[in-house]
Amino acid sequence: MIATGGATNSHILGNYSLPGSSHSTRGQQSSEARTCSWTQHKVDKLHLKTRGPDSALMEAAKHNDTKLINRILDRHPTSLRLCLKQQNQNPAIQAAVHGNTEAFQLLINYGASPNTVLASKSYEKPPLPLLFPQRGRHSSYSPANFTSETMKVLLRSKEIDLNSINDIQDSYVSMWMTPTELVNSQAGAKNRGKISALLASDPRTQVNTKIEFFYHGGFKSSFHIEFPRESSFYKTSKGVTEGKIPVSLIGQAILLNNPDLALTLLDRPDLNPGEPEGTAENLLTIFIDKLSNGLFYNLGNPLREKMVASEEFCRQILDSDSLLAKERFLLLLSMDFQSRDIHDNDKLDRLNSDELNAHIRYELSQYGNRESVEREVKHLSTQL
To answer: With 50 as the cut, is the pLDDT of residue 268 above it?
Structure first.
């Protein structure tokens, strides 16, 4: 992922006292030092003599050599400044992407900033503002490539900001993305699903967020994923953002084929498919499009229940100028997700906005009764 800015790092390395200099920190890691092989430890020690502490710290982080990390940072505490650097020059990042949980935790204990590891300052800066990422090219670093265990180390930090705003360039216009949205957008990363789900399951993470992108911009063109037709999206029409497509986090998860994130979000009681304002119609568009391609049927019932329970979602569809959005909502309300069949109602094509709204209000008024009957039938079936 490419980023050009983001939350600034508030951890000032020039004025801190090293927590790692205490015997307790070293003692906690003594048993873990054996995770690095004896031969590799010898090579890393030779690296310290020949290349200096900064280079040796990078190698020690790569190889989970906690004994050498302790030695370097006790004797050369300024080497911890490397943990503020970007991309592959950061030993904390090296430990995280290599799955070295002991080395990663040790560096955090010494004072490495978890927000520098997670935030956009560690992402690759584009050569031109137009390039969102270049097609077929991946940045040299992404939290989406962490292991679950190293991400859990990061999440245990009280300093971590899971809602930092990162400035991403999309065709010369900024997109604002949270860490969860950034990880979700790393479609080619092997651990994207697990890591984005871990971030979304943390109660500190705000799940009712959105991005706005151009249909013909760098964001969309960076994915090898079929998007719904441009004409089916609701677009903004305000100044320089005219023509941008607002999509909520749950909509992004479905759009970019991330079922792990989508299911995690649906388990959150605070997820509201009608928030942020202006995203309801596009969520409906994205979901119906995926269903028509045989995808995400397992999300049907829980997502529909969230939509029906959201006053904001229902209001946005009722207030929409799009007849297609109203027809899609009616289709969703009547759909049987077990049969996996989508049957368009030709009669809806002849109805105007007021008539479609009347049908929607009627279906919504009946929905609670229908759901209670279905639950009672399931309960009775279990007694037989």
So the answer is: yes
